[in-house]
Amino acid sequence: MGLTWQEPADIAWALIDAHPDVDPLDLNFVELHQMIVELPGFDDDPDEASETRLEAIVVAWSDNV
């Protein structure tokens, strides 16, 4: 199974690999959501995103760059 909303750290690592020069703190949630659903391994319902889930991904991403 691919990446799901329940795996913010895994999504963060995939975003780091896909967008190494992006600072996650510079993104708005619309941009972040688009980047996530475009990840090759993303396999979840895009409509299941929430502010809490997106925040968790930003935190995981910023903690690892």
Describe this structure in words.
- The protein has about 60 residues and is mainly alpha-helical.
- The chain has one domain (about 10-65): IscX-like (Arc Repressor Mutant, subunit A), CATH 1.10.10.600.
- Helix content is about 50%, strand content about 0%.
- The protein has 3 helices and no strands.
- The protein has helices at about 10-20, 30-35, 50-65.
- The radius of gyration is 10 Å and the shape is globular.
- The N and C termini lie far apart (about 25 Å).
- The model has no long low-confidence stretch (mean pLDDT about 95).
Distance N to C terminus: 26 Å
Biggest pleated-sheet summary: none
Please give the number of β-strands. 0
Q: What is the string of SSEs from the N terminus onward?
A: HHH
Question: Into how many domains do the coordinates divide?
Answer: 1
